């Protein structure tokens, strides 16, 4: 894409004037929580060094201390060019910091943010001076099970499928000079039926700048070297909607079936349009932002999921996004690309990003490479008013920030009743899930929303089932002979869980086996997988083939999600180890995944 910049943290909203603050920072533990009282933001006493954005628990941070520390501090000196602030503001962006982050600039308080997975920013223009400036950050975290924490443990040792906690800054920190009058946000919605792109602009400008109709946004759409459209929208308020036609000559693209139309995005042909936004006043360009979009439609039609009007069989893999030496933080952009390429090499057309909001560069490369993504929220593990408020606020931030990525085809706010353990019978918890469903749909009218992935669904666009049965014949027999019982509030397998919460009924939604497999090799009882461990590669392939084929043979299922991409700490059921080495020949796995069997053979 024309807007692509290596390592740029926000690939769908690109400006030129930015500085990456990753690297060495001063660091200190504050176990007594005395830092604010002692004003560490005025004179930082920390003697340690840390490599941001890696957390102190990881090897790549340079510290590698896995013990719990609830209060930590960072300090860094940055250089500011005051001459750039004549007609600009200086923003600092945190792509992700867990959990409660506070910022001081030159000893003055700049603001705070709660939540570990969403991007947040501060305008620090009034707090900086020309030359050197001091940034001081405090991050407060805890083992509180009421805050969204995903797969982070809340006791001192790893257990089950929960791993070493992530404390503090774990994604890129960067500064950006932005114009006084600027584009703050763009919401882009492809309308395939009308062959148009619906746009909602959010602009930062005083009312006086919009008086008289002199302020406008010019959007220029290109595909390769071909100019598609150029549209001017007069900004009469700070939020304005418009529509851009994307109808053009397509040179007979197969998935259009016509000479004139649009280029659609799919795993087989991930076509993307470039779009440039310019904020213009009296003929002068005030702000320029580079971006891209795709023309694609994802929708539910009875028991089918349709991509661009065609049935979509989803071959997904569970992806937790952990690395051995950096945990939740990708060690590099190249590591993100490697994961996507290897997932494709295994024959999958998509992934379920599990309990994590991944680095946005990952979503960019999924857009570019045609990888379908289910975006899943990190769970809390205890229900309370506080949990509802924190979850809802951060989920809205995440949907807002990642809405424009075409690779995301499904929102998954809840998984396996985590944080809503009584959802099967408790009306309050059911209302919470219904609220999140409808809130998400009020922002995104197209994408399916899954509530509650795995079992005990309330209102949900897709019914998803988790089943780690290891014998293919047993699995197939269960789902063929007991379909009517499975799609009720009755227990459907050995987990003692039901597909639907009490008071809810199956309404003909699509059905996907969204967790299965989890096969681990025998290694002297260290680590674990699902079911019995296997001893040889031949045993692994035989079992993988039998269970995957059984899933595909179930005629009323329109997809599957295998557990998982790679080993994660004590969980050793990945198709790759933590160093991203394949355990068996990926070509064999690919052939099994792509083999056309069962009712869905004509759609795969």
Automatic annotation (TrEMBL):
Residues 299-591 form the Glycoside hydrolase family 2 catalytic domain. It comes from the Bacteria. It holds the Pfam family Glyco_hydro_2. Keywords: Glycosidase, Hydrolase. Residues 20-146 form the Glycosyl hydrolases family 2 sugar binding domain. GO terms for biological process: carbohydrate metabolic process. GO terms for molecular function: hydrolase activity, hydrolyzing O-glycosyl compounds. SUPFAM superfamilies: (Trans)glycosidases, beta-Galactosidase/glucuronidase domain, Galactose-binding domain-like. InterPro entries: Beta-gal/glucu_dom_sf, Galactose-bd-like_sf, GH, GH2_Domain-Containing, Glyco_hydro_2_cat, Glyco_hydro_2_N, Ig-like_fold, Ig-like_GH2. Residues 246-296 form the Glycoside hydrolase family 2 immunoglobulin-like beta-sandwich domain. Belongs to the glycosyl hydrolase 2 family. This is Beta galactosidase jelly roll domain-containing protein.
